[in-house]
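Re: the 224-residue chain
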Amino acid sequence: MILGEDDMRAYYAARAEEYDRVYLKPERQADLRQIEAWLPARVAGRRVLEVACGTGYWTRLIAPVASEVLALDAAPETLDIARRRVPPERVLFSVGDAFALHECLRTSQRFDAAFAGFWWSHVPRARLREFLQGLHACLEPGARVVFLDNRFVPGSSTPVSAEDAQGDTWQLRRLEDGSTHRVLKNFPTDAQLREAVAGLASDVRITTWDHYWALEYATRSTTP
């Protein structure tokens, strides 16, 4: 099965009950403990828009320290898991399209922070700017933005099976139901991350662990 952008929702719906197993890999535990300690301070006290929240693995760390969280995902199946995992007092979970974020917000609603875990790698390179501009339109000037995603590590990461003419890379993933899916999964370099936010961000910082990277920055007052 070959996935286009519209098919990713169906893939993650089918994978919902399996998704969190990726966090059980023994070689990744030290990194995950460090990130779990690192992330909350980035959004503490802020009104956070979380994009592609999935099963709420990271929402559970953000919710206790943020003043407000709107957590969006395209797959109701993963949101069902997230709602069971995170108490609802400070989190509103909602179905939402990462490329049409304005449709998910109340009129004039703006956030002073945004977080997306393991979403950047699934955005086609040709649509990164579109996604970022749509995200920033939902944020106040100077809002803090944090992205977290995978580094490619041979022996731990699923092998890359193909690269297309746009520079996007693809993996073949097999689910418990026996289906095999061709999934977009990009592994950007530090230079590519900085290039993607050039002109849109200030105070850009990149943090790396053995298996993961994080990009954090402040949105600019004006967007070129």
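The chain has one domain: 5-154+188-219.
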